[in-house]
Amino acid sequence: MEIFGIPLQAMLSQLLLGLVNGSFYAMLSLGLAVIFGLLNVINFAHGAFYMMGAFFAWMGLTYFGLNYWVMLVVAPLLVGMIGMVMEKTMLRWLYKLDHLYGLLLTFGITLMLEGLFRSFYGVSGQPYSVPDVLAGATDLGFMVLPNYRAWVVVASLAACFATWFVIEKTKLGAYLRAGTENPKLVEAFGINVPLMVTLTYGFGVALAAFAGVLAAPVIQVSPLMGSNLIITVFAVVVIGGMGSILGAILTGLGLGIVEGLTRVFYPELSATVVFIAMAIVLMFRPAGLFGKQK
Amino acid sequence: MKTPSRKKSPPRKPQTTALAFAVATACTLGMLPSASAQLSNDTIKIGFLTDMSSVFSDIDGQGGAEAIRMAIADFGGTVLGKKIELLAADHQNKPDIAASKAREWFDQQGVDMLIGGTNSGTALAVSKAALEKKRLYIVIGAGTSSLTNDQCSPYTIHYAYDTVALAKGTGAAVVKQGGKSWYFMTADYAFGAALEADTATVVKANGGTVVGAVKHPLASSDFSSFMLQAQGSKAQILGLANAGGDTINAIKAANEFGVTKTMKLAGLLMFINDVHSLTLNLTKGMYLTDSWYWDQNEETRKWSRRYFEKMKKMPSSLQAADYSATLQYLNSVKAVGSDDADKVLAYMKKTKFNDMYAKNNTLRGDGSMIHDMYLMQVKQPNESKYPWDYYKIVQTIPGEQAFTAKADSKCAAWK
């Protein structure tokens, strides 16, 4: 059976690979959406934190002999803490100013972090191999899928679902959402809103680092890996609707698939297709697919 | 939206100072010691324009600048009683930045000779600026054979390698080893297209076939989808007509998806830094063509160890060529007794060059530096005995065969 001249098998395998990439988009755009939704900050440093997650994984293994599984927990915690320090010392002075200031600050931080890693490690990147348990591949009938890629999908979907659940369905999430709507009132109930905001930023950043650790065995750990991805991820957030949690997740996965299919039909366009989708969505739904018109 | 409340006004002053300080530090990190802006006729100025911060900065970049500094120091720091100075800048892979920087250097800084680093687009743009100002331009890092063919210039020298030499080296060797059917994975820009076309010509001329190709956008991080397409082609050889990070991520994906079990990879432009970064496990057995290898002989080893002392990594062929080109230029200036570009060029055209990089190299009418190229194979992990012991030299390709033949050249200056 063929679809538009492409055998069904090839089509299915490309769909699956698109889903794998979509998982990365989903995780990264989710972090961005959480931060924007609750802090109103356009966190341009997200790509740099993703890169740091991958680098910390590599450093843990190289300098301290800590394996992948340990670093999958430790790296996001460390990066999250760095993020919280940044929020406490720099970002919080910008909340009452225009979005642009936050964007500029985080963009500057990105340049500094990337430059720092580049001057120490160069751009060719560091090798990081797939953990032994997940090495090898499984024959799915229509394609041979490396086990590690399957793990990426599972891990990121779990992370996305957990985040969505906490923010939308729990009491803590309710406080968070209320805190962004009316911080004064929520504080009057005895809730420490600034602390909540700091933790939220730390969490969003940790999510980026988590994605970075997941990506380390798949692509070369390089200082440039974040900036290669961040623009696409921003497009995903815009398409999903700024600040929409569910929108970020679904759009991330969906665009991964769209991109995957483009790689089969017209590979030259694959780097651009996300932006075409963004243009089309903005024409008909300026607030994004899942965003609410304010 | 209102922001979380906070106590009093924040202590802004230390914040801003700290930030400013941090920004200044970051800027300094990326910057090179640039020469004083003072204009003087009492110096020989060498300019060096390359990618200092992006995808190609490991194969040339700061290491290239260091190699040039080593050459200046080895020469004694002065020529004809004049001080030798180096100006270096990052062209950020943008042809417009490269060309305007070159013009500024020629006009305002009085740069006598410009060394061109990586990126073919910038090299073609600077070549035109150098022709306009009648100054010498020695291209090292850029690969496109157009620099000495349809867009050749009497003031441009292509010193280290070009896409034709790479194709003739790796393409021919792999077909002769039995790799008859090829599938190309090509970076979707001028360099990738040139490399694919040049290699396809060589493959066909040697009796091979090209069964297909896929073009991927520059700086793709995920190659899995392209790998499946390559796998579906049933070709024997996967030719990687890309460079830097794209080649690295492609090889990584090829291993992950088991493409390396059914196809052999041919990296059409690979440098030792790529192999070092990927490790021998992922690159073992690959063929590649290069103009120089640090572990070639006693002379190259000696120089490379000196370089290693400074940069903590072994030099690529480009960095070695940066050193050689600087040294040979200074030798020529000294021999001629002038820094006039025409006089220096006339001298260079009748000279044979020899140093730790060059072996009886000659400068041809189209600007190509004619020298031997080497076909190398990446060692198996158990064959590698010490750090950076990565290549076996399989074959020496004589310079006369390696580069564009006169019959195939469209260079007007060489007719």
Name some characteristics of this structure.
heterodimer; A: 294 residues; mainly alpha; two-stranded antiparallel ribbon; 11 helices; 4 strands; 3% strand; B: 415 residues; alpha/beta; 6-stranded mixed beta sheet; 4-stranded parallel beta sheet; 15 helices; 19% strand; globular; disordered N terminus
Q: State the secondary-structure class of chain B.
A: alpha/beta
* Overall pLDDT of chain A: 89
For the terminal residues of chain B, how far apart are their CA atoms?
72 Å
Rg on CA atoms of chain B, Å: 23 Å
- The proportion of residues in beta strands of chain A is under 5%
Shape, per Cα inertia axes of chain A: globular
Q: Could you list the spans of chain A in which at least 5 consecutive residues all have pLDDT below 50?
A: none
Radius of gyration of chain A: 19 Å
Low-confidence runs of chain B (pLDDT<50, min 5 residues)? 1-40
Helical percent range of chain A?
over 70%
> What shape does the CA trace of chain B take?
globular
Strand content of chain B: 15-25%
Largest sheet of chain B: 6 strands, mixed
Quaternary structure of the protein? heterodimer
Q: Tally the helices of chain B: what do you get?
A: 15
Span between termini of chain A: 47 Å
What is the H-and-E element order of chain A? EEHHHHEEHHHHHHH
